[in-house]
Structure formats: C-alpha cells, structure tokens
Design a protein that fits this description.
About 30% of the residues lie in helices and about 15% in strands. Helix 3 crosses helix 5, helix 6 crosses helix 9 and helix 7 packs across helix 9. The chain is globular, with a radius of gyration of 20 Å. A hairpin with a 2-residue loop joins strand 9 and strand 10. It is of the alpha+beta class. The strands form five sheets. Strands 3-4-12-5 form a four-stranded mixed beta sheet.
Length: about 300
Amino acid sequence: MSATDTNVMTPGANRTAAGILIEGPSAWLGSEMRVREDEWTYRLAPAEVTEINDAIAAVRARGLDIAEIRREDFPLPTLGPALDQLRGEVLNGRGFVRLRGVPVEDRPIEESATAYWGVGTYFGTARSQNAKGHLLGHVYDLGGQAATNPNLRGYATSEGQSFHIDRSDVVALLCLRRAKSGGLSAIVSSMTLHNVMAERRPDLLERLYQPFPVDRRGEVPPGKKPFYEAPVFNEYEGTTSVLYSRLHIGSAQRFPEARRLTPEDYEALDLIQELAADPELRLDMTFMPGDIQFLHNIPFARSLGLRGLAGG
C-alpha cells in the first residue's frame, strides 16, 4: 500500500487501525534524529548541578528514605521548569529525551540514586515493574541467560536485550559507569514501525492487532494464568499503543494451553525485529556517566519507543 493510499489516523477515527498512517513528532526516523542530537539532549548547566546537589543534601539531612522522596522534597528552582518542559516532550512529543550531566562520578551510589530518584519525580511517580516490588533496578550481569531461564530478567544478564516495550508509563535509565563492552541503547519509534508495516505488509500489521500469548516469566499474580493474551498494537479512541516483547511472546509457547503461534505470527514478529534493527529507522544512543534516558511507554499513548540495551 502506498502512502497516498493510506489514511492518516485522527482522534476518534472509526476505521481499521492497521490501514492508517500515524502522523506527529512520535513517528520519527533514526537517521534524522542522529543529526539532531541537540534537540533531544539536555545538558545540565553548573548552576543546575548545584541545585541537584543541594536537594540531595537536604533530603539526606532529613533522613528520608529514597522511596519517601516526593517532588516537593526535591526542590529545583531553575531546573524544575526545564524538566517540566522535557516531560511534556516525552509525553506529548517525540517520546524520549536524554539528560546529560547528572552528578554521579566519585560519589556513593546511594547519593547518585537519590539524584536519579529526585529528578525522576518531575516526570512521574515510581512504580514497581517486578514481583519483588523493586523501585530501582540495576542493569548488571548477575549470571545466567534470560533466553533459557524464564524466571530471569534480561537486564540482570550480559545478553543484549532485543527491542521491547516496558510495562510502565515512562521508563528511565541512568548510567553510573561505562560498560566494559556494549552498553549501547538503541531505540526506534514504534509509530514509524507501524507506518512502514502499513505500507509494506498491511496483512502482517493486521495480525499484530490480534492477541498473542505473553509469558509472565514467573511473576504470576494470585488467581492468574502464567501467561496473558494481548495484541502487539492496540487502537483506543483514535490513539495507537504498543506492548511488545519477543522474548515473552516466544517463551509463552512453553505452556500447552497457550495458543500455538502460526507461521504468519512468526513472520509478523520477525518483521518487527527486522525493521527495528534497520539503521535508517533506529537511533543508537551512547551513554556517559550521569546520563539519564527517559522514554514514554504509557498504554494507549502515541509516543512510544522500543528499547534495546546491549549489556557488558
């Protein structure tokens, strides 16, 4: 289907979402973003670093646990309004931003975590993503392989993570130190993937709007099955969202009661991986100590990104 034959999604559109192109700043190309780094990188000024340090000292003097820190406990008079603008860009614009220069080197990890948490309060309220209730997690090789151990998180291994969506509104990643190898974060606009699939293979895109079995990877709520069913792409009130993890979809096949994936299913999933890895579409983002990456992952939101992190 050519671009001229494809409709553009507008709020409230009552059409088959798989045949609609998505417009707006969230449908970006990696090749374009690579030459526009200054637009998505915010570099902290010395005075803003001082504000963060002062806020860290204030909450530590009060003896606040990190989980107790709220935005009002972490005042950033000058930086705060800038973070509000960046939050707007993450939620309603491009969908991602890199904050550079957070003070993390030559200081205890606890203080770096406090800075990370405090800045994060300007983007939202922390929520746990795992069954253990962890609010902060380390991307660190603890041994093992997530590909063969369904109860192991990929970020706790040295494996390169494939492109995926995290189940949270906004996901953030702080770099404390450079990895010995790897450590590259690659992101791609899932809205752009949607558009490319709509033009090249609308039949496979249509399949991705149907439910897939998804492995809960050992984190099973009481009374629930060890897997659930959800589409990769979903349209709600004129807005498209994505929920995707090839690892979780694939490992759900270990359950006999899960629907068996068809050749067309695999072809559609393979196409996502192929397009996400396309240098024209994806954006490879380097991390320096003190960098924070914020990505929009909210369900039923337009501005979403797939994320892959190469460990080391």
